[in-house]
């Protein structure tokens, strides 16, 4: 596999700034000392993706470290918003009674078959029960990045199939 070309100086910035950005994201996500959640890693990696896409802006900035920190803060804020949105949506789905059902069975019964039960359980553990990404990743034998990718795929499938359900 061929190595990707990066702008001149990018690797040096990555090598010198990644730990600082990761530590900053840990603070913003409230990770316990000595731990790194999946969302924290996602935020740090996405920060450097934004840097790669905006290399010229970074280089032209009078304060490049401040620019990178600002990007990280925005990335963390957006990831937190996404998590909050998923928590709200899942709570709504779980507590929504099926129309015409006198027993008030939740729509999870109706969703059965649309999303595998283990995927729905994973979403519930993260967004409703508040389990950390690291805890769930360890239980599943995944890395934090692997869990983040799995969650991305599950959420994409959930969005697609739930829209059809509505």
UniProtKB/TrEMBL annotation:
Residues 40-84 form the RNA polymerase sigma-70 region domain. Pfam families: Sigma70_r2, Sigma70_r4_2. One of its GO terms (molecular function) is sigma factor activity. GO terms for biological process: DNA-templated transcription initiation. Residues 116-156 form the RNA polymerase sigma factor 70 region 4 type domain. InterPro entries: RNA_pol_sigma70_r2, RNA_pol_sigma70_r4_t2, RNA_pol_sigma_r2, RNA_pol_sigma_r3/r4-like, WH-like_DNA-bd_sf. It comes from the Bacteria. This is Sigma-70 family RNA polymerase sigma factor. It comes from Candidatus Intestinimonas pullistercoris. The lineage of its organism: Bacteria, Bacillati, Bacillota, Clostridia, Eubacteriales.
């Amino acid at each position: 596999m061929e190595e990707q070309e990066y702008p001149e100086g990018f690797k040096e910035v990555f090598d010198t700034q990644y730990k600082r950005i990761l530590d900053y994201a840990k603070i913003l996500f409230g990770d316990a000392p000595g731990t790194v959640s999946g969302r924290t890693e996602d935020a740090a990696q996405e920060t450097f993706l934004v840097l790669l896409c905006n290399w010229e802006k970074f280089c032209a900035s009078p304060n490049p470290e401040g620019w990178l920190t600002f990007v990280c803060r925005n990335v963390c804020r957006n990831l937190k918003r996404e998590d909050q949105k998923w928590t709200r949506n899942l709570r709504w789905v779980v507590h929504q009674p099926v129309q015409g059902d006198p027993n008030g069975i939740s729509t999870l019964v109706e969703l059965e078959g649309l999303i595998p039960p283990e995927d729905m359980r994973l979403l519930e553990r993260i967004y409703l029960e508040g389990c950390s990404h690291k805890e769930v990743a360890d239980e599943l034998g995944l890395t934090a990045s692997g869990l983040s990718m799995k969650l991305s795929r599950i959420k994409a499938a959930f969005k697609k199939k739930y829209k059809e359900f509505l």
